[in-house]
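4.2 Preliminary Data

To establish feasibility before requesting continued support, the project team ran the inverse folding procedure on a target of 392 residues. The structure was first converted into the token representation described in Section 3, and no sequence information of any kind was made available to the design step. The complete token record follows.
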């Protein structure tokens, strides 16, 4: 489809669905059905089978027309992680059931992967899923679950065979967060908020129709999710000097009295790092349009975390005494994380989580060294042993 053909399709859609008079949800559903949601997804699933690069022009055209968006910041896990994984591994029925309400924002998603004893070593998950007739009974605990208090569904990794080595005995499920036995408890963070949660699963029944991928194939499916997660965190599309680097440079310009040669040098170095990261993210997204994401997303996320933490610390130094203020310590359960709309103290504290969420920086360095640079892996004495025989 040429640029002109795609443009005409958008114009015809907008003529038939005036954003000013069409109810928001009706507009979003119609956009999905027209293939103008994810244009790089297949026809019938919100797309037109086009290149990933075409998404930018589609989104820009709808934005200029004043059309409502699908609140992407409020469903980041669903859009950035669950949807690509369902597309890659889901059955036709699962795609029809989940992708449309996911894109329109009718159903918010969260991620039930990490556990108290399986964070960095995700393959060590102990949440059990036991087969029971046409379904599964799940028991266990998950932690660091962003947005669980808002989610209707979750992507869930659970152990289904304790007699296999840890990487081979897991299965991937789509869990209804409103089912009996699902309990969500807030985890208050250093920022004062509770965007994270711990989730307890007690005899939660999941139909086998909500198993994603084959039984015992959970590690392979989960890795696809993790790769897309790291790209979503570290390689988002952005304009030059946007995000936290833009906030800090504006702070620098607004406080000439605080400038020193040393601060200037650090700001320029971090500005260059941020710009290199942005351009690398563009190249990575173009590469991803031709296939599934690989380990390169780990490098992007690793860089993002380092730059965000160093920039937020630099901002406090530029602000001096003003940077010691903190606007609000009220315990709230937010529906999104917004670095730019908050104060410098919040950015500094929240950035500490960037090197933990989406894979710790230490684990990501291992991924980069082993899967990108080809260096020898660390010794893993438990890799081939049955999970139930490994001491914990």
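Position-by-position output of the design step:
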């Amino acid at each position: 489809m040429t640029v002109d053909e795609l443009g005409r399709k958008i114009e015809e859609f907008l003529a038939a669905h005036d954003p000013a008079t069409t109810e928001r949800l009706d507009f979003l559903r119609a956009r999905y059905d027209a293939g103008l949601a994810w244009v790089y997804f297949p026809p019938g699933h919100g797309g037109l089978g086009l290149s990933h690069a075409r998404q930018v022009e589609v989104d820009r055209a709808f934005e200029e027309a004043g059309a409502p968006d699908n609140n992407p910041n409020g469903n980041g896990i669903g859009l950035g992680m669950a949807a690509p994984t369902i597309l890659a591994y889901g059955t036709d029925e699962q795609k029809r059931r989940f992708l449309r309400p996911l894109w329109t924002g009718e159903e918010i998603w969260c991620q039930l992967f990490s556990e108290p004893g399986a964070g960095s070593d995700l393959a060590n998950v102990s949440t059990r899923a036991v087969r029971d007739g046409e379904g599964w009974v799940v028991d266990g605990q998950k932690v660091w679950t962003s947005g669980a208090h808002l989610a209707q569904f979750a992507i869930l990794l659970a152990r289904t065979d304790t007699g296999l080595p840890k990487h081979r005995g897991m299965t991937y499920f789509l869990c209804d967060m409103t089912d009996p036995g699902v309990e969500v408890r807030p985890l208050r963070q250093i920022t004062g908020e509770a965007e994270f949660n711990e989730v307890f699963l007690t005899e939660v029944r999941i139909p086998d129709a909500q198993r994603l991928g084959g039984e015992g194939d959970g590690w392979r499916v989960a890795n696809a999710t993790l790769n897309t997660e790291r790209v979503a965190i570290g390689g988002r599309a952005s304009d030059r000097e946007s995000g936290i680097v833009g906030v800090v440079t504006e702070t620098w310009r607004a406080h000439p009295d605080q400038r020193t040669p040393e601060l200037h040098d650090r700001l320029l170095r971090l500005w260059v790092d941020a710009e290199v990261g942005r351009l690398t993210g563009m190249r990575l997204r173009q590469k991803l349009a031709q296939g599934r994401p690989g380990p390169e997303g780990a490098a992007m996320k690793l860089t993002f975390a380092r730059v965000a933490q160093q920039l937020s610390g630099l901002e406090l130094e530029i602000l001096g005494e003003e940077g010691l203020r903190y606007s609000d310590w009220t315990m709230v359960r937010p529906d999104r994380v917004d670095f730019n709309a908050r104060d410098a103290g919040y950015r500094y504290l929240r950035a500490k989580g960037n090197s933990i969420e989406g894979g710790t920086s230490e684990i990501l360095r291992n991924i980069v060294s082993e899967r990108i640079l080809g260096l020898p892996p660390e010794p893993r004495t438990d890799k081939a042993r049955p999970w139930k025989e490994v001491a914990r």
